[in-house]
Amino acid sequence: MSFPRRNASVTPAKAGVPLSFQPVAQKRDSRVRGNDGGGCGNISIAGAVFRRKPESRGVAHKVALGSGFRRRTALAALAFIAAAPVHAETPAPEAEIRAVIADMEAAWNRSDFQGYMRGFLNPGVVFVSRGQFQRDWQGTLDHYVRDYGGAPERRGTLHFYDIKVELLAPDAAQLISRYHLDRAENPQYGINTRLMRKVGGRWVIALNHVSSSETPDPNDPVAAHRP
Asked: DUF4440 domain: which residues (predicted)?
């Protein structure tokens, strides 16, 4: 009596599967299953199921590419920020007005009467003192050159202090300050009340009222000027 021959079992080697794939289970179907993405996954050949080894090199390569892209993006952003122009902050109106008064004081003290008069609206400034309207812009400049020009002793040293600025509108402000013209003969003391206007992008004095005094200010910041 003869017995029918059994089918020889299929081993991984006979099925043509590399030995790096290790069998983990036996199944009865002959379909091939795997991971299309090329990573870890199971493969079934002729009923035998084998596990793929992870492609660690490919994953590391992708991670490296991603890190490089992020690094280049960050560097590009930093370069853009560094190249962006820096806009200086616009000075506040009060700071601009105080700068005008400081420039006038400095101009007078170097005998630059033309520079001093740049602080006044030309030609529409109004001067009021001693109970009457005074000369216009050009007449005032001529008066300064004639009566205060020449030797520094005639000009004296001008000080504006105790300055108070009140903004009335975007283009108008009130300024009140004390002044002292320090010189050996006929020193002058008093208070200026000024209407400041912003004309042509710069602040100028449109109305200047002077209240003079023969008595020194006891609160003068220069100790030598106090009574």
From this structure: 97-205
